Amino acid sequence: MADNDWKSRLGTVYSTDPDFAYTTRQDEEPETLAPAAQDLRVWLDRKQRAGKVATLVRGFVGRNDDLQELARLLKTRCGVGGAAKEGEIIIQGDHRDRVIDILIRSGYRCKKAGG
Fold this sequence. Notes:
The protein contains 2 helices and 5 strands. It has about 120 residues and is of the alpha+beta class. The chain has a 5-stranded mixed sheet with strand order 3-4-2-1-5, covered by helices on one side. The radius of gyration is 20 Å and the shape is elongated. The N and C termini lie far apart (about 50 Å). The relative contact order is 0.20. The mean pLDDT is about 85.
């Protein structure tokens, strides 16, 4: 079934060349920087969350798998839920000080941002 990846070929113009091979564009993920080279910002946010507070960690540079792993670490240590998507980590609740402490102990450079 992996050979029948027709959704990735949508928008391709028909070709009469018998040797034509479909090539799908694959975006390369950036290489994950070392924790000491990361410059993370920790925000407190309530926009589009029905008035509920969430802690955001922005500025992570690296692969999505590493972002998911860092999010899992933060969610586990804070004992709350959250998500990691589009290069940022969302932690439910106001855990900004605890998140900064966890990140610093893990070797990341980070600081508070926003209001």
